[in-house]
Amino acid sequence: MNTAETLDQLLSIEQIKRLKASYFRCIDSQDWLALADLFTQDARFDMRDASGLQHDPKALSEGRENIIAFLREALTGVTTMHHGHMPEIEIVSQDSAVGIWAMEDVLHWAEESDSPLRFLQGYGHYHDEYRRIAGRWQLHSCRISRLFVESQGR
């Protein structure tokens, strides 16, 4: 690999890190419009193994609009804090990359929520695929797997 290719890969990795940081900020601020812009049109969002307890076949969304609708509904009345760290990013091709991020998230449901949960703290990983479209990196696939969950019911 020549110097120009190495520099392009390093720049791509940094852009992907910033993309994921924006994802976490947009989720926590519930900025759905900005969040939608981070995904490819045909993205996939998979939370089927995110409970840390059981597989949920309904927690798979395909397409940008469906992903945002799913997240908007799931997080209504919920205050969240997401942390992602220790990224392992691999550039697969000029316009394709994969990454794994260690993660921790904390969710607090509002008093008036009808959720059976009041609090959840999860630990696990994001498994992502990225695409560069028109010179800009976007999330193409996002799968969350939690290794451990602490929660408190109402």
3D architecture notes:
The structure is a single chain. It contains three helices and six strands, in the order ααββαββββ. The chain has 154 residues and is an alpha+beta fold. It has one domain: Roll (Nuclear Transport Factor 2, Chain: A). Strands 2-1-6-5-4-3 form a six-stranded mixed sheet. The N and C termini lie far apart (56 Å). The mean pLDDT is 94.
Quick summary:
This protein has helices at residues 3-29, 32-36, 64-75, and strands spanning 39-49, 60-62, 78-93, 96-109, 117-133, 136-153. With 154 residues, the chain is an alpha+beta fold.
Descriptors:
154 residues, 6 strands, alpha+beta, elongated, Nuclear Transport Factor 2, Chain: A, 3 helices
Termini gap: 56 Å
Q: Assess the beta-strand content as a share of residues.
A: over 45%
Please mark out the parts with pLDDT under 50 across 5 or more consecutive residues, or reply none.
none
- What is the element string, with H for helices and E for strands? HHEEHEEEE
Q: Which fold does the CATH topology refer to?
A: Nuclear Transport Factor 2, Chain: A
Identify the CATH architecture.
Answer: Roll
Strand order of the largest sheet: 2-1-6-5-4-3
The major pleated sheet works out as: 6 strands, mixed
Count, helices: 3
Number of domain modules: 1
